[in-house]
User: Which sequence fits this backbone?
């Protein structure tokens, strides 16, 4: 059983993380819409910026989506010439996903603008608070990752 202080802290963290997630989802929805993307497409592009080629399987795992759901997202990105499917050299039954030249340009623009939004938000507080925010979010991320790894070892988000 939790002690009273831990219980109160758990309620506070639960409420804060729930509301932060809600705010971040609203921010992502507005940002994606402003760039002619669906939220899922924006998230897919954010993941793809880190690597040049993805298998559908690996990308689905990264996004925690079924392959069929990811295929629909990729279809939308292919239709707008942001990504292309390339047949796997290892197994012709599978395809890999690459950013197109246009896609790389859009991803860079999205990254720059998304960073600018967060930079603006950070100006609402002083440098010491900014450092505390980064420390706190990093700490929380690590704690959540540890909990996921312990409780759902094959489903966690990874580093």
Assistant:
């Amino acid at each position: 059983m939790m002690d009273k202080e831990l219980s109160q802290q758990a309620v506070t963290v639960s409420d804060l993380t729930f509301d932060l997630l809600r705010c971040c989802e609203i921010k992502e929805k507005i940002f994606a819409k402003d760039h002619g993307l669906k939220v899922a497409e924006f998230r897919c592009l954010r993941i793809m910026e880190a690597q040049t080629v993805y298998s559908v399987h690996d990308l689905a795992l990264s996004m925690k989506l079924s392959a069929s759901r990811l295929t629909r997202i990729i279809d939308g990105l292919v239709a707008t010439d942001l990504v292309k499917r390339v047949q796997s050299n290892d197994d012709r039954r599978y395809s890999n996903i690459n950013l197109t030249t246009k896609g790389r340009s859009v991803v860079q623009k999205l990254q720059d603008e998304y960073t600018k939004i967060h930079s603006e938000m950070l100006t609402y507080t002083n440098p010491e608070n900014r450092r505390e925010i980064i420390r706190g979010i990093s700490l929380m991320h690590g704690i959540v990752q540890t909990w996921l790894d312990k409780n759902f070892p094959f489903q966690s988000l990874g580093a």
About this structure: The chain has a mean pLDDT of 91. The chain is about 70% helix and 10% strand. The domain at 14-124 is CATH 1.10.10.10 (Arc Repressor Mutant, subunit A).
